[in-house]
Write a structure and sequence with these properties.
This protein has 9 helices and 10 strands. The chain is an alpha+beta fold. The mean pLDDT is 81.
């Protein structure tokens, strides 16, 4: 038997209606709690056995977005059992719209972040992209939240056309005032997506050279060979001709040496073969050519071209040193003399004048 006191009416609803509404809400919360404790636990255990990250992302969305929405939906559904004033019903409907919009925005931000991390960052394993993801996500969050708030205001009945027009005028003013900063920002995106260089690359920009240490939203920092840090705006880099030596598969090397003019014809014919044998015998090199190329002012010039199969500058110098030492040794064995700048001066003796006897 239900006591008569339960039928007493308060604010348009009986006490029994309030109790039924509370029981419905509690029952729905218990069901959702069980689903969270049992269902999500099993889903997490299953996701731990897979190698993909999509299931982990789905579980994260369920916890952070779907479950809060379901709890609020349980409250909204429970309140439908009551007769509420029009103003309160409108408030509850507005709250539902706000909550749904916020959860949708959070879902979109999480989805974009997941795509960028799993596809754009992890597959390339680029430290530059990992460092820059926070800056990119900040811009994306601002855009999504701004668009979401405009849509929310429109759904709530506010006229957003005036707001959009004001934002458009304000955006133009801000863009004109901060065009340098915006230019560097877009140049940053160009560097990230086009990837003309990455962290650790050795580059030359105009008269400056060094190793890339940091690629920021506005500036890029390079450590020069002499030790100081060079700071370039991203716009300067995208507008410049950048020489990236880290991307070099092999290094072409051309050097010349000179022997004295007294070197015999037979020895000159031997020299290209000697150099070819030396270069071919060193690891990570590819011989191209060696020729008696020209008659110099004080020497007979030998021109040599070979390739170092590595972009490492120190390795190139080690190989060049080994080649120079081997050439010196072979020339000494064959009595081939290196030339050095010399001049021969011929002096004619003055003619003596004959005197009359």
């Amino acid at each position: 038997m239900i006591p008569k006191s339960m039928y007493a009416v308060y604010f348009g609803n009986s006490l029994l209606d309030y109790c039924v509404t509370g029981l419905i809400f509690v029952a729905l919360c218990v069901v959702l709690r069980m689903l969270k404790q049992v269902g999500l636990r099993r889903l997490k255990a299953w996701a731990a056995t897979t190698t993909t990250t999509i299931d982990d992302f789905a579980i994260h969305i369920l916890q952070q977005n779907v479950m809060p929405l379901l709890y609020f939906g349980a409250l909204y559904f429970s309140l439908q059992n009551l007769t509420l004033p029009a103003g309160l019903q409108q408030t509850i409907g507005t709250a539902w719209t706000v909550v749904a919009t916020i959860i949708t925005i959070r879902f979109l931000v999480s989805l974009i972040n997941f795509v960028l991390v799993s596809v754009w960052v992890k597959k390339t394993k680029d430290e530059t992209r990992q460092d820059s993801l926070r800056g990119i996500m900040t811009v994306i969050k601002i855009l999504i939240w701004g668009l979401g708030i405009i849509v929310l205001l429109d759904n709530l009945g506010y006229k957003v056309s005036t707001v959009i027009a004001g934002l458009g005028i304000g955006g133009v003013a801000v863009a004109l005032a901060a065009q340098t900063i915006l230019g560097d920002l877009f140049s940053h995106f160009s560097i990230l997506f086009d990837r003309p260089f990455e962290l650790g690359d050795f580059i030359i920009v105009g008269d400056f050279m060094g190793t890339v240490e940091h690629i920021g939203i506005k500036t890029t920092r390079i450590r020069s060979l002499s030790g100081e840090q060079l700071v370039f705006s991203n716009t300067d880099l995208t507008n410049s001709r950048v020489r990236n030596y880290k991307r070099m598969d092999k290094r072409r090397v051309l050097f010349k040496l000179g022997v004295v003019y007294g070197t015999s014809h037979a020895r000159l014919q031997e020299i290209p073969g000697i150099i070819k044998k030396i270069v071919a015998g060193i690891n990570d090199t590819a011989f191209d050519r060696a020729h008696f190329s020209a008659f110099g002012d004080f020497n007979l010039e030998i021109e040599v071209v070979y390739f170092v199969l590595s972009p490492d500058y120190n390795k190139y110098m080690d190989i060049q040193q080994a080649i120079n030492l081997a050439i010196k040794q072979e020339f000494e064995k064959r009595d081939i003399e290196f030339a050095f700048p010399t001049q021969t001066v011929y002096v004619n003796p003055p003619e003596t004048k004959r005197t009359a006897a």
